[in-house]
Structure formats: structure tokens, C-alpha cells
Specification:
By secondary structure, the chain is α/β, with parallel strands linked by helices. The protein has 2 domains: 154 residues, Ribosomal Protein L4, Chain: A, CATH 3.40.1370.10; 48 residues, no CATH class. It contains 7 helices and 6 strands. α2 packs across α3 and α4 crosses α5. The protein is elongated and about 95 Å long.
Length: 208
């Protein structure tokens, strides 16, 4: 697949980028994509939830009333879950929600997500650029020239560029990621994928 390479002014440079068919032109596997997104979201959970059970409540262990003759049920502890302020029955405990997914399955999911974006014409290729200093206005001008203002976009870079990242940080729905950190969720969670020339090489290198 060939796509025109644009500059930061939204104009064609006259060059074309080659997007390998084995990555950007396969038949998307929706089930694998579902598994990858589910794993990503599960792994974001902290799992630090905790509620005290009756053995962890601070309180007296004295029998609060006599066993018989009260006309009500017997009760042995104020920390019982049936009383207000008592422990919780089978309360949540800290745990990990991490899920495992095979490396080849994750790679197939990313290929499927990229192919889906390519089929829907939601991929743009931008020539490599950088800023001398962080500038939100300059990054906003790039999005405006590409007619992407207000849309959820993801710029994929080949290597870390703090000036570009800091420039995008104050713009709603504008995201920047490294090609090496790109996940299936990142691809699907953005309307338009902006790939730098170097990022295409990195993605091809990783998924080939």
C-alpha cells in the first residue's frame, strides 16, 4: 500500500511511503483484537481495593448480651457483619488483574488494528519533524493544516522527542506515542493515526 507523505503544512511532499501489506493489508481478526484490548484494560487496574472483615475490625470481643432470654437472635461480637460498623462479609482484597497474552497473538492484534485503520483511510503519513522548543501553537497549527482539529489523533514517532510531546500535551484529544510503545488499544482509541516516516520503519521492524 502506498500513501502520500505530507509535510507539517498539510501539503504533499511528492514522496510516497510504502506500507507493507503483511502489516497494513491483512484481513482484521476481530476476536484477537478483542483479546488484546481486554488484556490492556485489565492490566490498567490497580487492584488495591480492600475492605475489613470481622477479624480486622477494631472493637471489643466481649459478648454483647446474654445468650438466651432476649427474644432476639444470639450475638457474640460487636464486630459481626450483621451489626452497623462490623466487618464486611467476603469483602474485596488486593489482587492483580493482569492477563497473559501470547506474543504472536498480540502482534496479530496490532496488525489487525493497523489494517482496519488503513481500510478505513484513517492513516496519514507525515515527514519527520521536530520543534526547537515546546510550542502548543505550532502543534495545533499542524493539526489544523491536516484538517484534524478537534478529532482524536495519535502521532506515532520513531524515537523520543520531548519538544513534540510537550507541545501536544495541552491539546485535548491529541496524543503522541513511540512506535515501540504502540498498543492495539492506542490504535483503536484514536480516530486518526499520524505516522512519521521513521515510525513506519520501526513498526515494520517490530511486526515483521
Amino acid at each position: 500500500m502506498q500513501l502520500d507523505i505530507k509535510n507539517i503544512n498539510g501539503e504533499s511532499t511528492g514522496k510516497q511511503a510504502n506500507l507493507p501489506d503483511e502489516i497494513f493489508g491483512i484481513e482484521p481478526n476481530e476476536h484477537v483484537v478483542y483479546l488484546a484490548v481486554k488484556q490492556y484494560l485489565a492490566n490498567q487496574r490497580q487492584g488495591t481495593h480492600k475492605a475489613k472483615e470481622r477479624g480486622e475490625i477494631t472493637g471489643s470481643t466481649k459478648k454483647i448480651k446474654r445468650q438466651k432470654g432476649t427474644g432476639t437472635a444470639r450475638a457474640g461480637s460487636i464486630k459481626s457483619p450483621i451489626f452497623r460498623g462490623g466487618g464486611r462479609i467476603f469483602g474485596p482484597r488486593p489482587r492483580t488483574y493482569n492477563q497473559k497474552l501470547n506474543r504472536k497473538v498480540k502482534a496479530l492484534a496490532r496488525k489487525s488494528a493497523l489494517s482496519g485503520k488503513a481500510q478505513n483511510e484513517e492513516i496519514l503519513v507525515l515527514e519527520d519533524f521536530t520543534f526547537d522548543a515546546p510550542s502548543t501553537r505550532q502543534y495545533a497549527d499542524i493539526l489544523n493544516s491536516l484538517e484534524l482539529t478537534g478529532k482524536r489523533t495519535l502521532l506515532v514517532l520513531s524515537e523520543n522527542d520531548d519538544n513534540v510531546y510537550l507541545s501536544s500535551r495541552n491539546i485535548p484529544k491529541a496524543n503522541v506515542k513511540l512506535a515501540s510503545d504502540l498498543s492495539t488499544y492506542d490504535i483503536l482509541n484514536n480516530k486518526c493515526l499520524i505516522l512519521s516516516e521513521g515510525a513506519i520503519e520501526k513498526i515494520t521492524e517490530t511486526l515483521s
